[in-house]
Design goal:
alpha+beta, six-stranded mixed beta sheet, 28 helices
Amino acid sequence: MQPTGTTPKVVRIRKLEVDLHTGDLWKNSVRTKLPEQPRQILVILVEHAGELVTRETLRKTLWPRDTFVDFEHSLNTAMMRLREALGDSSENPRFIETFPRRGYRFVAPVEPVELGVAEAALAAPGPANGSNLPLAPIVVFSHDVSSRSGRVAISNWIATLRPHLLLGGLVTGCLATMALFTFRHMQNANAMEATTERIKSVVVLPLENLSADKDQEYFADGMTDELIARLATVGSLRVLSRTTAMAYKGTHKSLQQIGRELNVGAVVEGSVVRSGDQVRITAELVQVSTDRHLWAETYERPIGDSLALQNQVTTAIVNAIRIQLTPAELQQLATSRPVSTDSYEDYLKGRYYYSNNRSSEGLIKAIEYFQRATQEDPRNALAYSGLANCYATIGSTLVGTMPSIEAASKARTAALKAMEIDGNLAEAQVALSTVRIKYDWDWAQAAKGFQRAIELNPSYSTAYQRYSLYLMAMGRTQESVSLINRARELDPLSVSVNFSLGWRLYMARQYDQAIEQLHNTIELEPNFAVAHLILGQSYEQKGLHELAIPELQKAATISDNTPLTLSGLGHAYARMGRKNEAQAVLTQLLHPSNKSYVSPFYVAVVYEGLGREEEAMDWLDKAFESRSNGLIFLKVDPQLDGLRTNPRFRALQRKLNLPD
């Protein structure tokens, strides 16, 4: 290895060039910015070409002992990415030879790249007094120029002018600087526009957890969620939602394959390392059409500043794909309030349970963590939003394990607190609007809130999903279906969104399309009880009882006989004339063995199936008094068709202020 003072800045390795100062890799005249760890490994191996570099040496250099990280996994991942960039393989190495359990050796020939004429001129003494030019601001020949041919052209151009330069090195430097700007404007800027103008959509793949503690998986997932949420605030960029992104967790597919499957222009991938109260994110942006690495960087901050860190990463990504931000978007990305470390961590745990498990048990666990987060930091708006969404969901018809009045009160309090802290938070707008539609029946204010949430975060699929609920309640069924399809475009692999589309189609009485969509949903998640429930109800509305009953029974079995699924099964039994079985279900609802809460709405549905209108209306009136959110679909629910001519039913619809 050469002494430090004579180490070349740029070396040539076959058809590649490497800048040992920056770690930049030039491949086929295109600059590739490697992620931090592969870049450092490449420089170390090239500087020690022909020598064995041990794994222990790499560990000490890249991951000091006070860094909490799974070293073996991290090193293997970094080597895999480096080999991908070089076009190398461990089985037939052209660049890096592996010594199992020992280390690596760089085996390709390494040649220094000589400085061009103009580069030498910049390094030469200046005027006759021997003083040197101030080189720091002169960046003419840094590798920010997009191609090697461009740098050679500049060198040749300046070399031609040298005999005519009368003012010495200073003029040379100035002209060189002018040449840089002219050349980059004419050639490189156009090239960048050509490669980035098509990027109007992006997916953020799950950030890899490189922390030593594998229980930190929730933290890496939370960081992914937050990055998606920040990017989603950019109106001109379509950002796929977290559920779809999480479907690719641990996948071995290439970034190009993932990008094409999801029909996005770019893919963001990276890793998270947590060390004590510090968090480090390494991320890179890859254009799908060219497989070009447009940007890569590493950021590190205290956990309490994680939101600011996410804004920093988002801004860098947006700049890399040349998106023009609006003043409001710039303001939003420039604003972030620190939260306490404990509060933010408990918020991420709550979000993990809320996002990954919508069962009653999962929601209760999420509520515990969100409550703890608000106690640890009473100004944590995100935690209050999460708390409001949990209560709104656990008291809804689809879960229904908490009395609606109790759930509504708690959801409303948390949502108003979130709005008080940050009214420009899309999650807070959605949380409050959800309470207004499900329990307050304040239709006008709910609509305004959903619309405002979409303005704040145009890629927030949940906002479209909840707004479509409002439209369905208003009887605007086709608009509702259209909006849930928009949510599905943003989150195509979400079980919840795919189910919601099937349910909207059922409520719109498009039963054949609903059946097809619900089968698609069940393919995504075979044990999704409510998907089997609505599929069975769709068959029931078509008179296909021999297909309906098995699906409804399956829904009841999977869900352990929740009141929701029992109600659907009892209604189908009644419509088939199997009144004894329907009465048995009714008894279970009226006298639950586990003393669990049963919404009056579920009882009313079975009475409607049995044709006992007045008893059904009695229970619907009770549902009104208890603020059951099942009533908001009074205009469209096919299970209530037998009551539509009943005067009490019409009066109830007027009490709900539903449009005629």
